[in-house]
């Protein structure tokens, strides 16, 4: 099989009989690779858009979760302060009850003393009236 002198020089004819430096198979494979690379770049671009949208969505969800977390912390703190206020109010009321009980006891003792004085005075009056 005789070699073509153009092939030996690195020149080839393609399917349209144009003179090419590359072999037709290599040229075809290069073109296919170029198209595959273009498809790959397009798919990577689409992937980046999808991932960008996903990242935005996750960021929004994170912000919303952080906002809800702060609301929950605020509500918990408010609940704790309300509980402390109730406890303080309960202690104040218990102190007031104790004070009122002591006052009631003083009034009871004073009432008993006054009742005793009244009884003694009534007895004195009765004796005074009987002596006349």
TrEMBL record:
Keyword vocabulary terms for this entry: Cell projection, Coiled coil
Major place of residence: other
Pfam families tied to this protein: IFT20
Keyword Nucleotide-binding set for record: no
A GO cellular component entry from the record: axoneme
Location(s), subcellular: Cell projection, Cilium
Organism superkingdom: Eukaryota
A single BP term in Gene Ontology: cilium assembly
Coiled-coil parts of chain: 79-117
InterPro entries to which the protein is assigned, alphabetical: FT20
Protein name: Intraflagellar transport 20
Organism name: Pygocentrus nattereri (Red-bellied piranha)
Lineage: Eukaryota, Metazoa, Chordata, Craniata, Vertebrata
């Amino acid at each position: 099989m005789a070699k073509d002198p153009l092939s030996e020089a690195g020149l080839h004819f393609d399917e349209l009989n144009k003179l090419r430096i590359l072999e037709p198979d290599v040229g075809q494979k290069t073109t296919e690779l170029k198209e595959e690379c273009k498809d790959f770049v397009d798919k990577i671009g689409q992937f980046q858009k999808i991932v960008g949208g996903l990242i935005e969505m996750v960021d929004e969800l994170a912000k919303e979760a952080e906002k809800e977390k702060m609301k929950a912390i605020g509500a918990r703190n408010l609940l704790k302060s309300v509980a402390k206020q109730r406890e303080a109010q309960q202690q104040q009321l218990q102190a007031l009850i104790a004070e009122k009980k002591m006052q009631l006891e003083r009034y009871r003792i004073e009432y008993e003393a006054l009742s005793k004085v009244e009884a003694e005075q009534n007895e004195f009056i009765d004796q005074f009236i009987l002596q006349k």
